[in-house]
S9 family peptidase
Amino acid sequence: MNKLLLLICAITLTCSNSFAKIPSDIDEQISIFTKPYQYSEVKISPNGTYISFIYNENNIRKLAFLDAKTYQATYVVRFSGDEEVGSYEWVNDERVALEKVYNRGWKEEPEYYGEIFSVNADGKKATYLFGQKHGGQTTGSRLHKNTAINAIGYIRHGLPANDKYMLIKAYPFNNGTSGFMSKVQPQLYKVNVYSGKRKKIATAPITNANFILNKDLEPTFVSGTNSNNETHHFQLIDKKWSEIDLIRGRLNNFSIISVSDKADHIYAEGFLPNEKQALFEINTRTGKQTKIVSNDNVEPQKFWVDDNTNELYAVEFEDGYPEYAFVNKEHNSAKQLKSLLSAIPGHQLHLLSKTLDGHKSIVAAFNDRNPSDYYVYNSKKNEIKKILAQAEWLNPDDLADVKPISFKSRDGLTIHGFITMPYGIEHKNLPLVVNPHGGPIARDYWGYNSQAQFLAQQGIATLQINFRSSSGYGLAFEKAGNENWGTKVQYDIIDGTRYAINQGWINKDKICIEGGSFGAYSAIQSAIIEPDMFKCAIGVAGVYDLTLMKEEGDIPSINFGSSYLNEVLGNDQSKLQAMSPAHNVNKLKAKILLVHGKKDKRTPIEQYEALEDALNSAQYSFEKMIFDKEGHGLFNPENRAKYYKKMHSFLKENLAL
């Protein structure tokens, strides 16, 4: 174990000396696959003096600072009571700004109230920078009267050219109404990182807005969405926001990525008729567009923008495995990324943080068998050094590969997905858990999945399908699922399952389906459509009655929520009932396990109760796990462990393992 790891172990008391074999005991397996990751948000200070990271101690987030030369700890930020560290950013070489979250007794997941603090890497000059002091409690930090503001703040960016200041994006309170952040026009403040004194420098001309900064970190463009779910774009001209018509160049579904180094030019993603989303350079005066990079199968997944200058230099696509396209091959960060891809093969990379001179960077490297390793990269010396492992207790050599797949749906669409096969056994006639993703406007990616790896240890394969409605495959594919949640979307999942069977990988008599949120809906709905295909179905935090979606939960309270629901669900009540599991339990044959949190705002407990009532009325037996303090999903690792244990026994019984 290297010197840095030894010092970190002294701080966190969590390290072991070497990889251990995955234990055969099921409780021990559950523990290693449900425990929180040790480290996150690893960063380097602007001049490279310090390395910082969040570490998890007893499910509490703390912020540690190390001297980058000696690796000696200089300070650890620990809040007291129910408070803990949220996200943070370096604002100059001695100081960070951090968001504070609260662990309230009524809910497992921490709550954020918009409070931002700052502190030096040696623990000195702790200051309450921004927010409304929540609950009037003492914090140990100096609360200045001039920092109190009736708004929720989010760290936006440091200002290297004037490093006593930073940018904070704020959402003014709107009588505390539900979903108010999507209904107000956000503001941008320039804030002194030592005193908290602030100056409002911009107010967005539209709700649900994002400020786009130029290379001097000045707000130059705004993109936002109105209550009709329509996106509008504005440019700051003569100190006024003027709407710009970028669509006149036939570019649809576009969003601004960054400001180009050419005058009056921006980089934006969008698509031309009958094409996939791509990256374009656009002249904001003439509307002329030039396609820069694209992929025939997928949309851009990640835009690589330099942290210090906001310059775009690369685009990442995920057509199965990740691929990289370089916008500016001569950019220093582009050269670094190319070098790193060669130095750490077989991994997906993220440049998390770098010094102002660009010579030192913190790099995250991860793949299907590794949640993430962290490296320090010195481009001047062309040296790279591993410093941390997000889950050092896992040996990648003992874990399963995740392989991309594709097949044709029954109506001729190409559908993509992934399959995780158990390690060390023949990939033939295996039991299977189909695991549809949430959203539905989301997608699965090649990468590490703790649940799939846990199931692989039990000899069970996992199938993930990017069904129609999934993002990333073009707007037409995404919209193909509109008003078809309970039909064509589920057919894609079912067709993918048949594809896996036909490859000889899967035993057709040993298949269950499990998912969370929309994936829970799909689990039960697919089991209704194909009652003989699935031996069991597990729904976690699911929506089970589509007619309730427009009345219950947090989506209707969002500014554009009603417009979105009308678009994706339609308004035909009879069709919504026909696609709702709660109205069709008479078609079920599978064994059912339902898991829900009483604090869920996205799919509230009323969704679970609708299905529960229907199953009870039909005298259809089912199993359940209800968590009093959980929200949308299982945040508490102890609750995740309880769920894994129940899932394991439920699958073992119904798959006859």
Notes: Residues 399-654 form a domain with the Rossmann fold fold (CATH 3.40.50.1820). The radius of gyration is 25 Å. The longest strand covers residues 506-516. Confidence is low (pLDDT under 50) at residues 1-7, 9-17, 134-144.
